[in-house]
Design goal:
Layout (H helix, E strand, L loop, with lengths): L2 E9 L12 H6 L5 E8 L5 E4 H10 L6 E5 L2 H11 L6 E4 H9 L7 H7 L22 H25 L8 H13 L7 H26 L4 H8 L2 H10 L6 E3 L6 E3 L6 H7 L4 H11 L5 H10 L1
Parallel strand pairs: 1-4, 4-5
Antiparallel strand pairs: 1-2, 2-3, 6-7
Helix pairs in contact: 4-6, 8-9, 8-13, 9-12
């Protein structure tokens, strides 16, 4: 018989160290990573909370993962912790976040809080906000008890949400797609040619140096800093784009209602330029933003680590 294991990990986070600043991979593999506790529900049994990595590890080791499904809300996070930190792999990955996105779209509000409200399952607590900057050893006993109650509630909400959503996906390929997508992240099979990557990285840096020299000449300035200052001007930046045959992205100004340049760092048009097929346009965007790397350069450096 296959078991359904619903899990939620509570982990240490702080200013500058959280999923709002780091990728999931960077966060979990960081030396600061610490499991504060784990909420778990096996099938429809009682939801329990275990404090710290040692308790969590013992419980997880007692489960036959070859015959168990893992259910979480945002399984990319909790499933990665289960695999990378504790070394356990379920027979399949399930995710209420993925199911909700497939059903409602990615812009409809996929947080557990939003979905619990949508389906009137109850309220998600706020105790996690009080845990900022606290490592396990910093918690008082009563605080851990409160945090445990919060975590168990999240597990219950996830389980109840799954029981609603899974009825809408009976005999659907969505299950297989979710598992395959999560497995590609949690259990990656990518094999890198490090020599080729290093060679390409050297080429990119040379191209970047040549581009900056060309920009300095083209703009009649003496340094990269002056290039950046000039490119901070919407007019100058737009002119360069046009000179290189690239359409300047536009948007409606919320203040005047007229068309204006869409060249702010969060504008969709500008974000598209940052990934333009022409490396020169990528470099223009990188210099304008004050970043040190183009998209290709930063991706190669991350892969090469």
């Amino acid at each position: 018989m296959t078991d359904l294991i619903t899990i939620d990990f509570e982990t240490f986070y702080d200013t500058g160290y959280g999923l709002n600043r780091l990728t999931t991979e960077e966060y979990i593999n960081d030396p600061r990573f610490q499991v504060i506790g784990m909420g778990i529900k096996i099938n429809d049994g009682e939801t329990k909370f275990y404090v710290g990595e040692e308790q969590a590890s013992k419980v997880l080791a007692s489960i036959n993962w070859k015959e168990s499904l893992l259910l979480c809300h945002n399984t990319m996070f909790d499933g990665a912790i289960l695999k990378w930190h504790f070394g356990f792999t379920p027979s399949a990955y399930l995710d209420t976040l993925c199911l909700a996105r497939a059903l409602h779209g990615v812009d409809a509000g996929g947080s557990l809080k939003a979905l619990a409200e949508r389906y009137r399952l109850g309220e998600k607590g706020t105790e996690v906000l009080d845990a900022k900057g606290k490592r396990l050893e910093d918690f008082q006993e009563y605080q851990l008890k409160q945090y445990g109650a919060y975590c168990k509630n999240d597990v219950k909400l996830t389980y109840d949400l799954f029981n609603i959503l899974e009825k809408k996906f009976k005999a659907s390929r969505e299950w297989m797609l979710i598992d395959a997508t999560l497995r590609m992240f949690i259990e990656p099979k990518l094999k890198l040619n490090r020599e080729l990557l290093q060679q390409r990285l050297i080429e990119i840096k040379e191209e970047k140096s040549n581009m900056l020299s060309s920009l300095q000449t083209q703009l009649n300035v003496d340094s990269e800093e002056e290039v950046r200052r000039v490119l901070a001007s919407n007019q100058q930046f737009a002119k360069l784009l046009e000179e290189h045959g690239v359409a300047v992205p536009m948007k409606e100004s919320p203040r005047t209602g007229k068309d204006t340049f869409a060249l702010s760092k969060n504008d969709e048009g500008f974000l598209a330029l940052c990934e333009h097929e022409d490396p020169f346009i990528q470099e223009l965007c990188a210099v304008r933003l004050g970043t040190k790397s183009t998209i290709e350069e930063s991706r190669i450096e991350r892969l090469y680590k």
